[in-house]
Each structure stands twice: as C-alpha cells, then as structure tokens.
Write a structure and sequence with these properties.
alpha+beta, 19 helices, eight-stranded antiparallel sheet, six-stranded mixed sheet
Length: about 725
C-alpha cells in the first residue's frame, strides 16, 4: 500500500512538473512560418528589375529589418550593418556595427546603437556569418566573430532586452555609439548613474533611454560628447562566465519615463519569459488568419507578410500615457499615441488590414492623427497625396467610429480646401480642376516640378473619400462639391494619346510626351504615364468610359502588361516590371485587379498569380522582394491577394474577390465571428462567388461579412 502511494506521489510530481513546463513554454504554430529576413536581401536580376543596376547602386527592394519587435511597438531592436541604408541591415554585408532600437525601413531612425566588445581595436564592428544567425518574431540572435560574443535580443513594447555570452571573461565592454543613427544626430548625452545603470539622450529623433545591467560597470569612458563622431564605452568588471544582460527602456518624453517603461514592462522578468511573451503576442495576431493547402513557400510568404504588415505605425506614448506632440510639447491622452502611418503607400491596403485585425490600434492611430490636426491645423499626410482621408473614411465606414468624427471631418475639409497645408497647389486644383506643370525642356528623372498628374488623380480620390464622410454625416453641400471634384481625374486624360498626361498652366498638353519615361516629380510621382493611367479606384466605370468602353479599356490594359520596359529608363524605386506595370512601387498596385471591371477576372488572376509566385521571396536565397516594403504596404498587398479579397477602393467598405492561393481560409474577426473562405477546385479562373450558399452578384463582397461572419465559396475553373 505504501509503495503504491509513493508511486502515486511520483506520478503526481511528474504530471505537475510537466504542466509547469508546458505553462512556461510558448506553443509556436504560426510564428514558425515567419522568416524575418525576407526583404533584407538585394534584388539584382535585371530581367526582374527591368534594367541593369548602375555601378554602386543597390535596388530599393525590401528594406526590411530582421530584429525583434512587438506589433506596432516603440522598440524595434535590430542589427546595424550599414548606416544610411534603408533599414540598417543588408543581407549581403558581413559586419555588424551595433544593435539599434528603432526602425521603419525608410532611411531614418535606428537610434541608440549598442554593441558588446571584447578586446576591441581602433575600429568598432564585428564580422558575422548567417550560419551563426537566427531570428523569429520577437527574437534575434547572432555570433560576433571578432569579439567572440553570442548576442540574443528580445523586446517589449517600449523596452529592449540584450543578452551577451562572452567567450572571454576579461576585458568585457559595451559600446554606446551615441553619435550614430540613420536619422541625423543633433546632440547626445550619456552618464553612469549607478554601478549598473546608464542613462542618456540622443537628439534628432529625441530619444531617451535608461539601461540596467546585471553586472557592475567599472567605468564609463566618453569620447567627443555630443558630437556625431562621439561614443561611450562601458567597461565591465571581471566576473563570472554568466551572460551579461542589458535591459533598456526607451521614451520620446524623458529619462524618467524610459525608466518607468523598463521597470513596468520588463522589471525582474527573465530573458526567456520576455521572449515567450513576445512569441505569444505574435501567435495571437498571426493566428487570426488560418489557412489550409498551399505550398511551403506560400505559407511562409503569407505569414511573413502578415508579420511585416504590423510593424508600423509605431507606438510613441509611454506607459503613463505621456507623449511628445506635434508641437514638441509633452502631452497626455486617454489613447495610445502612434506615429503617422506611411500614408502614400499604406492607405491602399495595410491601413485596412490594421483595422480588421487590430481595430483598437487603428482607432488610436486615427486619434493620434486628429491630435496632430488639432495642434497644426491640418491632418498629417505622408510624402504625397492626402490619403489620411481614405484611411480615416475607410475605418469609419467599417465601424471604427469611437472618435470625434465631426472634429476630424472638419480638419479633413481644411486639408481639402486650404492652401499652405496638407495639399500643395490646392488652390489651382480647385480653380482649374487640375494641377499643371511648368514647361521644362528635356526633363530628366530627377527634375523638380509639381507632379501635377499624380496629385490631381490622388486629390480626386481623396475628395471622394472625404465626401463619403460628408454623406454619412448629412453634410449634403460638401458632399456634392467633393463628389464633383472627384471627377477631376478626367481632366488629366488626353483622348489623343489615351494617357493621363501633364498640362501646362494654360491648359495645353505638355509636349514632347513620352509615356514610358519615369519621373520622380515631373507630371508624375515615381511613375510614368502608363503606371498612373488606370488609377481611379472610386470611379472605374467613368475611367473605362474614357477609353471608349470595355474593349478599348481592355486593349489598353493588355498593353500595360505587354509593352516592353525600356532598360535605359532607370529611376530608383521604379523597378520590377511586367511590361510597363511596376510591382516594385505603389502607384499602379490597383491595375492588376482592373480586368474585373470588364468581366474578365481570369485575366486579373493570371497577373496576380505571376506576381505572388514570382516576385515575392525571390533571388538566390529566396529573401528578396520585388520592391520596397514601404512600412508594410507591399506585404499587405500579398496578404489580401493570397487570401482572395482586396480593398480595391480602400475607402469603401467592400472587397474585390479573387481566387485565393489556399484551399481554405479561416479568418477570426475582431468581434469574435469567423469568415470561412473555401476554394474546392484547383482552377485559377474565377467562375462564381457564393456567400452563405447564395450566388453573389458581381465581384465585391461587403464588409458585413466581417461583422456577421460568413462562409464564402470561391468557385473556379
């Protein structure tokens, strides 16, 4: 009897330990499909790019980072292989110069570089090999060969966690390379405040930090304080062979807030605990979309693209609610404050995806933009166009409406009507119905001008977007005015050439005219005439009429994808060509879907499949993208296209149906409902759409499927 009792206790103990171990571990199901290195390798194939890269050029494809981040976090902790590069890390490099704590992939940020050293020479940096490097969502690891240090990184929303395994116990050091970042460093300071604490500030982006080590700092040597040539080295006391751990909190407000962020988000938690928590946060997000069928590469691309779609906008408010506002004053709000979205790109798809999966973040992003508008008088824009109008209208019409819509709408109206704010040349646009360009002899790629064609087309869509808010709010007068202005895109259409073409101030067409030549700012923005001539996502019926109807439109659209690209036409970022179509940049990303509007979805699908199968995860290592990810737009394009529905006009609460790559998609909506998308046949030509068993009229499904759940059958042949 006693023996049985002991056996029972032993069995109970084993079961208890097993349960405890299980609880301490994170079950990885979807993060295992994510390859954070995708987008870090260069695209070099001239057959894909459309031209031979000039000597010394690196294509602008990808520009992603492989390091640790949580969804829409303040901290992105990632290796730096080249300052001044898009995201700091380029896969072909073999030297790491530090590990930085902010990132976007737009040649900026990359703040507070830190690097463990051991017996360093006069120059800082270590060789590394991809054979001794690994990464996953919320984690990064690499072995620094020159310093014999294995580095492991993980992070929380506002804090980073470094772990350094030094092979050599003596002369351990840590470099704070304070004069360097991808953004211009205007000033910096650093100080040792306790035996194991270093704090400081890096000007330019104005980032504060508070770092705690698990070992004693013997001394902190500072060189060229405040200068871009300057740095600091923390010399650690000789101790055990235990790993050195550095926990660092960030803040854009103060050192005190950085300390509080660190203490409340990491505190005494272990590296393993923080890493597991990071993994679980990504599992929760990625498991929103569950698929069956598809190849290994398609699974990897889907979840890698879904992952990259949630790295930006980035959090900027501290755990106590404080943030630095657009006037550079410290403020506090009852919402999380975020950076502005990368609106010229992400309004097309990624901002919609953000609202579908993380509606609370999308809501707070809108509130953050409204706060900027309140402080500066205009809603923020990014780079070109006024596409906050589409992002906000699209979210509002999809039910994300717990914000001051009337106040937000008034600022959007200012954007749309007041010169000197968000829309350059808006007075000319309102007066003439278009924006002109000057008469310039022999314009080149880099010629500076108004980009009048692109602006006119984009403002027309932005007008449509604001009009939809006006309609819902019952502002009939502004609705009519804005809807009339939304037709202004037609004023750029030249019936003689059948292109969207630049006009001079007197209204005449710009000559000479080469529709294949790409410009950065003359007539077009990072595009040529081919690439913008199919852009009217709010009025495809009207656009088709300009081409003389379905047959004329189809013929012109066919030519977009078949007229060969001239390899002498080289404009960085206008790359990866299918005929004249450019997948590597955003201005024509709607064009492959356009065949749906003339009843030829099978033609769209053929192009979409070509893009998804051949222009993502390419190159010798399968790590190159066909263009710059642009804060997730390129990735979100893939996610929607792979799942079988695309927000063709992101403002409108509906989705254009295509044939998914997967046999079944299960999408758990934010309100607990489920959308099941089934593709029973192997064919890639769309034949019929059924929603809850009923045949769907047309190629669009309403946003109501996300509110109520649905079973959608995609019948293909």
């Amino acid at each position: 009897m006693e023996t049985n009792y002991k056996r029972f206790l032993s069995l109970l103990l084993v079961m208890t330990l097993a349960t405890a171990l299980t609880k301490g571990q994170t079950k990885t199901t979807y993060t295992k499909f994510v390859n954070t290195f995708i987008g870090t390798a260069p695209l070099t194939d001239p057959n894909i790019l459309g031209y031979e890269l000039p000597r010394g050029w690196r294509s602008w494809a990808g520009l992603t980072f492989p390091g640790s981040s949580l969804p829409n976090a303040m901290v992105q902790l990632s290796p730096m292989t080249e300052y001044g590069s898009g995201a700091g890390y380029e896969y072909e490099d073999d030297m790491i110069y530090g590990f930085t704590h902010t990132n976007k992939g737009h040649w900026n940020l990359c703040n507070i570089p830190i690097l463990p050293l051991s017996n360093p020479g006069s120059k800082f940096g270590s060789r590394f090999s991809h054979k001794n490097e690994s990464a996953a969502p919320g984690y990064y690891q690499v072995y620094l060969e020159d310093y014999a240090v294995n580095v492991s990184l993980t992070s929380t929303l506002r804090a980073g966690y470094h772990k350094y395994d030094y092979k050599n116990n003596a002369n351990r050091q840590i470099l704070f390379d304070m004069g360097k970042a991808n953004s211009r460093v205007s000033s910096w300071k650093i100080e040792k405040v306790r035996n194991n604490v270093i704090q400081g500030f890096q000007g330019g982006e104005n980032v504060y930090f508070y770092a705690v080590l698990n070992t004693t700092i013997e001394r902190l040597d500072i060189t060229d304080v405040g200068q871009r040539t300057g740095y600091a080295i923390a010399h650690l006391t000789n101790g055990t062979n235990a790993p050195v751990e550095l926990k660092i909190g960030l803040s854009f407000v103060s050192i005190e807030n950085a300390k509080e962020n660190l203490e409340k988000e990491i505190g005494n938690k272990s590296f393993t605990t923080i890493r597991n928590e990071a993994t679980q946060k990504w599992e929760d997000l990625l498991s929103t979309v569950q698929v069956k069928g598809g190849t290994d590469k398609q699974m990897q691309m889907l979840y890698s693209c879904l992952y990259r779609s949630f790295l930006w906008p980035a959090l900027r408010s501290d755990i106590n609610g404080e943030f630095t506002d657009a006037k550079r004053n410290v403020a506090r709000a009852d919402f999380a404050y975020y950076t502005e979205p990368s609106l010229w790109d992400t309004y097309r798809n990624k901002d919609v995806l953000l609202g579908l999966i993380s509606p609370k973040v999308a809501l707070d992003v809108i509130k953050s933009m409204k706060d900027v508008g309140d402080k500066k008088g205009f809603m923020p824009t990014f780079f070109h166009g006024d596409h906050g109008a589409s992002s906000i209208a699209g979210a509002y019409l999809r039910g994300i409406d717990d914000f001051d819509i009337k106040g937000t709408y008034q600022i959007l109206l200012r954007n749309a009507n007041v010169e000197g704010g968000a829309r350059p040349y808006i007075a000319e646009y309102i007066k003439k119905g278009y924006i002109s360009d000057p008469d310039i002899a022999n314009p080149q790629v880099e010629t500076k001008a108004k980009a009048g064609v692109s602006k006119t087309l984009e403002y027309a869509y932005d007008d449509y977007s604001v009009a939809q808010i006006a309609k819902k709010l019952g502002d009939t007068a502004n609705y009519r005015i804005l809807m009339a202005r939304s037709n202004n895109y037609k004023n750029m259409f030249d019936p003689a050439t059948r292109f969207m073409r630049g006009r001079l101030e007197n209204g005449s067409w710009i000559t000479p005219f080469n529709p294949q030549f790409p410009y950065y700012e003359y007539m077009y923005r990072e595009a040529n005439a081919w690439q913008v001539s199919f852009y009217a996502p709010h009025d495809m019926k009207g656009l088709i009429a300009l081409y003389g109807g379905a047959n004329g439109f189809e013929s012109k659209l066919d030519s977009l994808f078949t007229v060969p690209w001239n390899p002498k036409h080289i404009a960085r970022n206008v790359e990866t060509m299918i005929g004249q179509y450019c997948q590597g940049n955003q201005p024509d990303h709607e064009a492959p879907f356009a065949y749906h509007f003339i009843g030829k979805p099978e033609k769209s699908q053929k192009i979409l499949d070509n893009i998804m199968n051949n222009l993502y995860g390419i190159g010798s290592d399968g790590l190159a993208l066909s263009g710059m990810d642009d804060a997730g737009e390129m990735s979100a394009w893939y996610v929607f296209s792979a799942l079988g529905f695309y927000p063709f006009s992101a403002t409108d609460p509906e989705y254009l149906v295509t044939v998914p790559l997967f046999d079944e998609v299960r999408w758990k909506t934010s309100n607990g409902k489920t959308i099941v998308i089934k593709k029973p046949n192997a064919g890639r030509a769309l034949k019929e759409i059924r929603v809850n068993g009923k045949v769907n009229r047309g190629y669009f499904i309403p946003h109501d499927v996300f509110k109520n759940g649905a079973v959608i059958d995609i019948i293909s042949k």
